[in-house]
Fold this sequence. Notes:
Blueprint lengths: L3 H8 L7 E3 L16 H4 L5 E3 L8 H8 L7 E3 L26 E3 L8 H10 L5 E3 L14 H8 L5 E2 L2 E2 L2 H16 L6 H7 L3 H7 L19 E8 L11 E10 L5 H11 L11 E6 L5 E6 L18 E5 L1
Parallel strand pairs: 1-2, 2-3, 3-4, 4-5, 5-6, 8-12
Antiparallel strand pairs: 6-7, 8-9, 10-11, 10-12
Helix pairs in contact: 5-6
Amino acid sequence: xxxxxxxxxxxxxxxxxxxxxxxxxxxxxxxxxxxxxxxxxxxxxxxxxxxxxxxxxxxxxxxxxxxxxxxxxxxxxxxxxxxxxxxxxxxxxxxxxxxxxxxxxxxxxxxxxxxxxxxxxxxxxxxxxxxxxxxxxxxxxxxxxxxxxxxxxxxxxxxxxxxxxxxxxxxxxxxxxxxxxxxxxxxxxxxxxxxxxxxxxxxxxxxxxxxxxxxxxxxxxxxxxxxxxxxxxxxxxxxxxxxxxxxxxxxxxxxxxxxxxxxxxxxxxxxxxxxxxxxxxxxxxxxxxxxxxxxxxxxxxxxxxxxxxxxxxxxxxxxx
Length: 320
């Protein structure tokens, strides 16, 4: 085993080194050597792999990595990172930013969306990210974790090895905006604190940031229009589906439960059996004219439709 300081003292004799693998070394910190600077030791290093160590202190580790001038790819999966604090930038304390293009932090115990938001403050040029989505899934619609990561990181072009298309980004950001808007109880300040890109996205998509009133003048003012089409299964996310021409348009309340929506759908479309929530999908129409399924409905029949990302103008597919 070799610690970080010892590695730098050895690698000073390899000034052209570009890729360093220090996985499985039981590293608990990246404390610099007192004998040689990190800049002298690693002047041309672009890729650093710290897989499967015991690195947990995010700030001190990022400060150490910022001393590597050419670093663009950083892998820290299977470590002990639990919190990613927002970078401090004040007159008293100014923590560094890093010019990373690729970051891998999968299989760390990261479960707070605030940690994802903080990544932008450390890596303003981050284009590719590897992160475990399952720990982030609590309290949001099923299958929405990928959408929420994309919406929170404006320059992300690839997530967990899969390209983020322009269409996917638009859908993810609009879905995220609709999710933010469902909670009318939070103040504007609290909403922005929990969702730093809220106002930026609202401006981008010309959406109001005014908080909705708790009591409406009438139910009609809160109703939305959705369109439902029948699609042929089996359905694979992001893969084109066959859509029947007939389209049913309904005026509904977004606070309606999935179960109640299914009953309304059965009546409107003259279906013979009850609608299974698992047969409902949010759809998107591409510029090519093809229709793709973005995500399945929330499987809990007692959750309201906003959990599934239903909003005014949503196209819904019913698998037949």
